């Protein structure tokens, strides 16, 4: 299997489904996790309803659980724009990418950015791919720091236990 071949596989489809559901949830003013759960049930009952892949559910849950942090990070990197002024589809794409950059440790940052740009090409305006790329390009450096800090708090040397004998303060 060639590593240089661009592949829009299962995760790309899951991201696209997550964008669709986040967009719809915002438009209908419903909680995205509830909407996704409803769609999972509908897809089981009706084969005309597109399924919600497990990774799409993971993204939606992650975005919903971290929405305030994600929106703050995006807003901090918008120049002469506000989050509310962005097209709703761009907001959904950026939320997914930022969640992946900060929390999906199995997704390399370059993949999160490339996927977001590809989704913007498919789903949004002609200006959106460059805009999304520019915003995420600024956030990538912060994401590396966030991931490193999270990894440092989660990983302990073998044999070290978080107990009363620990030297942590």
Descriptive account of the structure:
Helices cover 67% and strands 0% of the residues. The protein is mainly alpha-helical and 169 residues long. Helix 5 (88-103) packs antiparallel against helix 6 (109-123), helix 5 (88-103) runs parallel beside helix 7 and helix 6 (109-123) packs antiparallel against helix 7 (128-154).
- Rounded mean pLDDT is 88
Rough outline? globular
- Strand proportion, as a percent range, falls in under 5%
**Unreliable stretches, pLDDT < 50, 5 or more residues?**
1-6, 162-169
Major β-sheet annotation: none
**Rg, alpha carbons:** 18 Å
Number of helix segments?
7
Quick take:
The chain has helices at 10-28, 32-45, 54-65, 67-76, 88-103, 109-123, 128-154. The chain is mainly α.
Descriptive tags:
single chain, 169 residues, mainly alpha, 67% helix, globular, disordered N terminus, disordered C terminus
Q: How is this fold's topology laid out?
A:
Elements: H1 10-28, H2 32-45, H3 54-65, H4 67-76, H5 88-103, H6 109-123, H7 128-154
């Amino acid at each position: 299997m060639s590593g240089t071949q661009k592949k829009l596989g299962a995760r790309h489809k899951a991201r696209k489904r997550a964008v669709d559901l986040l967009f719809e949830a915002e438009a209908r003013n419903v909680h995205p996790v509830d909407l996704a759960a409803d769609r999972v049930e509908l897809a089981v009952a009706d084969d005309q309803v597109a399924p919600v892949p497990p990774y799409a559910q993971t993204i939606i849950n992650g975005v919903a659980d971290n929405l305030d942090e994600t929106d703050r990070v995006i807003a901090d990197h918008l120049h002469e724009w506000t989050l509310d002024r962005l097209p709703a589809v761009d907001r959904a794409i950026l939320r997914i990418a930022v969640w992946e950059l900060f929390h999906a440790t199995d997704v390399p940052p370059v993949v999160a950015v490339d996927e977001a740009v590809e989704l913007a090409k498919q789903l949004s305006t002609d200006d959106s791919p460059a805009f999304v790329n520019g915003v995420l390009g600024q956030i990538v450096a912060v994401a590396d720091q966030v991931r490193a800090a999270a990894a440092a708090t989660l990983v302990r040397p073998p044999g070290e236990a978080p107990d009363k004998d620990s030297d942590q303060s």
